[in-house]
Design a protein that fits this description.
By secondary structure, the chain is of the alpha+beta class. It has one domain (9-161): Histidine kinase-like ATPase, C-terminal domain (Heat Shock Protein 90), CATH 3.30.565. It is 29% helix and 25% strand. The chain has helices at residues 9-20, 24-37, 66-71, 99-105, 153-161, and strands spanning 43-48, 54-59, 108-114, 119-125, 128-135, 140-146. The chain has a 6-stranded antiparallel sheet with strand order 1-2-6-3-4-5. A hairpin with a 4-residue loop joins strand 3 (108-114) and strand 4. Helix 1 (9-20) crosses helix 4. The structure holds adenosine-5'-triphosphate (ATP) and magnesium ion.
């Protein structure tokens, strides 16, 4: 019988999360980089319980429309490169399409965005789309990450022990 199995999307996202997201500050860094890449002039960071309970990053950047928002948390989904040649002329902080799917796989994440047309939100729990809909929001994006590492107990314990 074959011993090799190909890991499913969710499990491979959780493993990737171990590389992208180590602690609260790595989540904040990834979200701020996204806000800067979105040409924001104002970025707000809010932490509840040192970010263990909630991390919220709000910006006034270009935002996303509903279609982009709904694929933004999928693995390898990026608006920053399109082909291998773009790798030699990267002008953004991100380009891997790894940050949002990694964070989404180990948290309860809500992304609200408005690209100047209409506001939309998605709520994900461990990468799964739980809820979505139209909302009222100024142009820009608001990402809320709750209960980081709720589904990876070893990492959660490390996070709580860490002197944040
Ligand atoms: N604050 C934001 N404002 C506007 N668009 C955003 C924002 N955050 C994410 N996005 C969109 O979602 C996509 C996915 O974000 P994600 O951080 O996962 O990947 P990335 O920034 O392209 O690459 P990396 O994984 O290296 O950060 C981005 O390419 C961008 O199009
Ligand atoms: Mg990014």
């Amino acid at each position: 019988m074959s011993k090799i199995v190909q890991l499913d999307e969710h499990l491979s996202n959780m493993i990737a999360a171990g590389e992208v997201v180590e602690r609260v500050s790595s989540v904040v860094k990834e979200l701020i980089e996204n806000s800067l890449d979105a040409k924001s002039s104002e970025i707000t960071i809010e932490l509840v319980d040192s970010g263990i309970r909630e991390i919220k990053v709000t910006d006034n950047g270009i935002g996303m429309d509903k279609e982009d928002l709904k694929i933004s948390y999928l693995r390898h989904a990026t608006s920053k490169i399109k082909n291998q040649y773009d790798l030699f002329r990267i002008s953004t902080l991100g380009f891997r399409g790894e940050a949002l799917p990694s964070i989404a796989s180990v948290s309860d994440m809500t992304i609200k965005s408005n690209d100047g047309s209409i506001g939309y939100y998605i709520h994900l729990r461990a990468s799964k789309l739980m809820d979505e809909g139209i909302i009222s929001l100024n142009k820009g994006t608001e990402v809320t990450v709750c209960n980081l590492f709720f589904n990876t107990p070893a990492r959660l314990k490390y996070l709580k022990n860490e002197n944040v």
